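Run log // design_07
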């Protein structure tokens, strides 16, 4: 069960389940939320091992940014990769190209 929300009650609820889903945040905001969740899990005798943090980040757009997110405990990201290459578009070919380029530029790190 993944829980969203930003209130202390929501973060505590997420800490008692399998994961947390963020809204659009900066890396530093995510650091704070993940820190609170880690503290709540520690209070309950749990670690962050196996806990999912699914984040949409407003200031991580490349491999270095994603590494920073990983360091603060983000395990998964939500993104629209074609925006980085072609901007907002409804063109399926451009979206597909953006996804392929994103994979080429970023995913080899995790392979």
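design_07 sequence
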């Amino acid at each position: 069960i993944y829980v969203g929300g930003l209130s202390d009650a929501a973060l505590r609820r997420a800490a008692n389940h399998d994961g947390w889903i963020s809204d659009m945040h900066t890396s530093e905001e995510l650091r704070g939320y993940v820190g609170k969740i880690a503290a709540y899990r520690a209070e309950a005798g749990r670690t962050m091992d196996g806990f999912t943090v699914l984040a949409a980040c407003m200031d991580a757009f490349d491999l270095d940014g994603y590494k920073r997110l990983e360091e603060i405990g983000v395990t998964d990201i939500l993104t629209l990769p074609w925006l980085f290459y072609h901007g907002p578009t409804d063109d399926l070919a451009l979206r597909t190209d953006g996804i392929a380029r994103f994979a080429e530029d970023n995913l080899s790190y995790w392979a």
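The chain is about 50% helix and 15% strand.
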